[in-house]
Structures are given as structure tokens and as C-alpha cells.
Design goal:
The chain contains 9 helices and 14 strands. By secondary structure, the protein is α/β, with parallel strands linked by helices. The chain has a single domain, classed as Metallo-beta-lactamase, Chain A, CATH 3.60.15.10. The strands form 2 sheets. It has a 7-stranded mixed β-sheet with strand order 6-5-4-3-2-1-14. The protein has a 7-stranded mixed β-sheet with strand order 7-8-9-10-11-12-13. α9 links the parallel β12 and β13. It is globular and about 45 Å long. Bound molecules: zinc ion (3 copies). The site of one zinc ion has 4 residues, from loops.
Length: about 325
């Protein structure tokens, strides 16, 4: 009886794209297209350079308390018989890319005992702030020396890479190949998965900023590690998420609340605090939208699994994203 019930449930679980389940990296789901979370920290990571706050001190003492900079992998199986044979795409190339590529060993048919010069099938970049693209340096001559790795980005981001060193050298040596994204136009990755960029409001000193809508056969993931507070958007975020048919939203959660930033007002803060996001999306979350928080600053108390803030997030039906978790597409 029990196994029959399970057999009935399994297709249902896959039909749901395993949304809502936060699997550990130790037990990846079956070879279906999926997203794997490679990092959940803000650009400076945890521990943060030069910081001796309790979170950073604990992270220096215990590697289990470290968090990588926010990044996703999209895993597209290309051989049903071999779970190590996949096309793997990165969203953002972070300063933690060495560790994050290591987190993908089990889904890469990489050469044994030497450097893999084609570690990913491509990279999608959100924008040119240090946590999101500087890992590209490892694609260059001094490190992996890849060959024509496609790097999808906006026209402005592509111009930035072509124009300024050291990135221009990666382009000149054909280590990376910038490919222009057009907002709203999907890029097909195979297995029924597409990635669609949308422009979002965020500090734009060097480039504009994208969120990515990752659509699979059964699940749509909305990934937005950086954006302005919701009251500075022209379109309400709940309408944006609904308009994209979002099942799982991985959203900018740099700060938990203004308490973290004494003496500063909401108008000075460049990100939507978690408490505001929960208020804004509570009814969508109650109706089944799976909202998980990413891009947490080292000051964010919700990083601590035992904190009152993370418990409050869970009580309200939201979650802090977990590194290594997978979301079936
Ligand atoms: Zn960032
Ligand atoms: Zn710190
Ligand atoms: Zn940014």
C-alpha cells in the first residue's frame, strides 16, 4: 500500500517541480532539468572582508557557518543514462566561483586530475557589481583559460566587458564570448528550459541590471538577487511575479529590516528589506507562491538558522534559500 501511494506521488512531485522542497546537495533529484543554489550571500560574502561581527567571527572559526556569494546553476541533463552528463549554466560569476564550480562536480563529466577548461556551458550575468561578475577573472589566462565560453548579458554589460580591462582581455583571447540579451526574449537551453532577462531597477553606475525568469516544463523560477525597494518600482512586484507565472521567487534579501542600519531611513536603502517583502507578498505566499530569500548581507540576522528572524520568516511561510538546494524545473 505504502509503495503504491509513493509511486502515485512521485509523478506529482515531479509535476510540481519539487517546488517547496529544499533538498541538500548530498541527495540531488533525478536527472531532470533543475536549478541548484550555489550561494545566498550579498556581494561581500560571509565572512565579509575586514569584519569582526559575530556572524563573520563565527564563519572564520567554523567553515559550516560560511556563505557563498549569491549564484545559481541551471543543470540540463543531456544523457538520461548518465547523471554526470549535463549542460551546466551559471547565473553570475562570483568571487566564490572556485568553490561554486566544485559544488557542481557531481553533475559535470569533467576531466580527472587536471583543469577543466570548459567548466560550464555558459554564464548569464545580472550586472557589474563585484559579487556578480568578477569571478569571470577565473576564465582568463591566469586561471582556467576557457575557450569561447558564452556569456549572456545586456548590451550595456557586454560593452563594459569589451571596453575595460581585465575583462576586455578575456574577450580578445576568446576565453569568453559575450552574447547580447534582449529584455523579454528567452534564450533556449534545451530540455524545454528557457532563460528570459527582464530589466529591474538597481544602482546603475556601470551597467543595467537583470532579473532572470527560468522556465522549465513544469516550474518557473524568478531569480533577482539585487533590486531597489518595491516603492521605487513602477510596476508592483506582485504583478511582475504573477505576470511571469512565477512558482518560485528567489529575491533580494540584503537586509532583514531597518534595525540593521541605525540612523538610515528607507529612502537611503537600496534594497527591499525582508519584512517589507513579506508584507508585500504575504497573500501570494499564502496562495502557494514559494518565496525564498537570497543575497543576505553579513549583518542580516536571518542568516542564522536559530535566529528569531529566521523563525519569523518560516512562521509566515517564507524561507531563507539554502546552499545546495535544488528546484526541479
Ligand atoms: Zn549584489
Ligand atoms: Zn560581518
Ligand atoms: Zn548590485
Amino acid at each position: 500500500m505504502r509503495s503504491a501511494a509513493l509511486a502515485l506521488m512521485m509523478p506529482l512531485l515531479f509535476a510540481l517541480g519539487c517546488a517547496g522542497l529544499q533538498n541538500s546537495s548530498a541527495s540531488p533529484v533525478a536527472p531532470t532539468p533543475r536549478v541548484r543554489i550555489l550561494g545566498i550571500a550579498q556581494d561581500g560574502g560571509v565572512p565579509h572582508a575586514g569584519c569582526s561581527c559575530d556572524t563573520c567571527t563565527a564563519a572564520h572559526a567554523d567553515p559550516a557557518k560560511r556563505f557563498h556569494v549569491a549564484s545559481l546553476a541551471i543543470i540540463i541533463p543531456t544523457d538520461d543514462a548518465d547523471p554526470r552528463t549535463n549542460d551546466v549554466y551559471l547565473i553570475d560569476a562570483t568571487p566564490d566561483i572556485t568553490e561554486q564550480l566544485h559544488m557542481l562536480r557531481d553533475v559535470r563529466d569533467a576531466p580527472e586530475g587536471r583543469t577543466d577548461r570548459a567548466p560550464v556551458a555558459g554564464v548569464f550575468l545580472t550586472h557589474a557589481h563585484m559579487g556578480h561578475y568578477t569571478g569571470l577573472a577565473h576564465f582568463g589566462f591566469e586561471s582556467m583559460h576557457t575557450q569561447t565560453t558564452p556569456v549572456w548579458c545586456t548590451e550595456r554589460m557586454g560593452g563594459f566587458l569589451r571596453r575595460f580591462g581585465p575583462w576586455s582581455q578575456l574577450v580578445e583571447k576568446n576565453e569568453i564570448e559575450p552574447r547580447t540579451l534582449t529584455p523579454g526574449e528567452p534564450v533556449e537551453l534545451g530540455a524545454g528550459v528557457t532563460v528570459t532577462p527582464i530589466l529591474v531597477p538597481h544602482r546603475a553606475e556601470f551597467t543595467d541590471t537583470c532579473a532572470f525568469v527560468i522556465r522549465g516544463p513544469s516550474t518557473t523560477v524568478f531569480y533577482m538577487p539585487d533590486c531597489n525597494p518595491w516603492n521605487r518600482w513602477t510596476a508592483p512586484i506582485d504583478e511582475v511575479l504573477a505576470g511571469e507565472g512565477t512558482d518560485v521567487a528567489l529575491l533580494d534579501a540584503t537586509f532583514y529590516s531597518l534595525d540593521e542600519l541605525p540612523g538610515r531611513s528607507l529612502s537611503e536603502i537600496g534594497h527591499p528589506p525582508i519584512v517589507t517583502t513579506m508584507d508585500t507578498l504575504q497573500s501570494m505566499s499564502d496562495a502557494g507562491l514559494d518565496v525564498r530569500f537570497v543575497h543576505l548581507n553579513h549583518t542580516n540576522p536571518a542568516l542564522d538558522a536559530g535566529s528569531a528572524e529566521q523563525r519569523e520568516i518560516e512562521r509566515r511561510g517564507f524561507a531563507v534559500a539554502r546552499e545546495g538546494a535544488e528546484i526541479g524545473l
